[in-house]
Amino acid sequence: MATSRALTTFRLPPLPTIREIIKLFRLQAVKQLSQNFLLDLRLTDKIVRKAGNLTNAYVYEVGPGPGGITRSILNASVAELLVVEKDSRFIPGLQMLSDAAPGKLRIVHGDVLTFKVERAFPESLKRQWEDDPPNVHIIGNLPFSVSTPLIIKWLKNVSQKDGPFAYGRTQMTLTFQQEVAERLAASTGSKQRSRLSVMAQHLCHVRHLFTIPGRAFVPKPQVDVGVVHFTPLVRPAIRQPFELVEKVVQSAFHFRRKYCHRGLGMLFPEAQRLESTGKLLQGAEVDPTLRPTQLSVSHFGSLCDVYRKMCDEDPHLFAYNFREECKRTKCKSQEPEDDREISRL
Question: How large a percentage of the chain has pLDDT more than 70?
């Protein structure tokens, strides 16, 4: 009982400010790594509050940098905070925080894209998928350069119930470039609707919590930053393998300004494209003149179900890659309207 009381009343002792830490260890943000420091502890506290009740929780922070969000997490009376930082320059400053919070902060010098977090916390924390989320949280101010590949990786983990989600429906509170945050939470028919919207929303309840102005960061990025919260769904809205869903959704958004039948046609070899695309849309009961942004998660669920049946009937279909066919035939008509088509996927 005494241990529980100590956990719930912990506060860090007086420490140098984040700005002083940056000066002390001569830290500079590396532009190539998309590093931007958040120095205002009122904002880091807000991020942590929005993550939910962290009392006695086990938290995995990605990319802590100089430790602004790290301090706010420790002050939320967590049981343990695990931070994974790739840049060795930040380790001494984080070690100072660890010394100020004995037994609470564990530092790993490593890469979040390869770190095996499913082995990091006690087995006793694991919950059945149908139960409430476990007392495990992921929080992070993500560098822009890794935010999209990392969330796609974690969404795949959600679909397979492994990685951070071996503990159950682990909640995530993460920062993204504002445009990416808007895409993640974009509703059907909105201008920002994209591949990322569907991939996230068919697996998670996604909320764009608030926006942090770029001027709050050092150095100031050219864009604002959105804070997004993810809670994995008990049952995915699309019950097909992650790779199949990703292929269908990516194909649909390949020509985001055109009717959806154009992009979905890229799922099939040219010789059978017209017939097979018609069969797919008819079987899924999807209007071929809808734009990709007008397709709901339910639409994509139907499309994925029909495409799965077509793949079962033709074992070579799923392996088909229209880009490879395009290279062989040196075709031009199947390329996106412009480079921005790919960047918005």
Answer: 91
State both tokens at 210.
């608030």
Identity at 195, one-letter amino acid code: R
CA distance 194 to 106: 37
Alpha helices in the chain (DSSP H): 2-9, 18-24, 41-50, 68-74, 91-100, 144-160, 178-185, 195-201, 242-252, 260-264, 273-284, 297-313, 322-329, 339-343
Q: Which of 34, 287, 61 is nearest to 145 (CA)?
A: 34
The two structure tokens encoding residue 196: 């990322």
Distance, in Å, from the CA atom of 224 to the CA atom of 228, rounded to the nearest integer, reads 13
- Provide DSSP, 176-209: EEHHHHHHHHPPTT-TT--HHHHHHHTTEEEEEE
pLDDT (0 to 100) of residue 301: 98
Q: Which residues are within 8 A (CB) of 54 and not within 5 positions of it... i.e. 6 or more apart?
A: 48, 73, 76, 77, 78, 137
Nearest to 210 by CA among 237, 235, 174, 243: 174
Q: Give the length of the chain.
A: 345
Q: CA-to-CA distance for 298 and 288, rounded, in angstroms?
A: 15
- The pTM of this model reads 0.90
| Cis check: omega of the bond before 288, within 30 degrees of 0 | no
Is the distance from CB of 87 to CB of 108 less than 8 angstroms? no
Tell me if 170 sits within 8 A of 133, measured CB to CB: yes
Q: Mutual orientation of helices 273-284 and 297-313 as an angle, nearest 10°?
A: 130
Q: Determine the Cα–Cα distance for residues 306 and 66; give it in Å rounded to an integer.
A: 49
37-50 pLDDT per residue, tens: 898 999 999 999 99
Residues 6+ apart with CB under 8 A from 127: 133, 134, 167, 168, 169
Q: What pLDDT, on the 0 to 100 scale, is given for residue 95?
A: 95
Determine the Cα–Cα distance for residues 69 and 48; give it in Å rounded to an integer.
7
Output DSSP code: residue 29. Answer: -
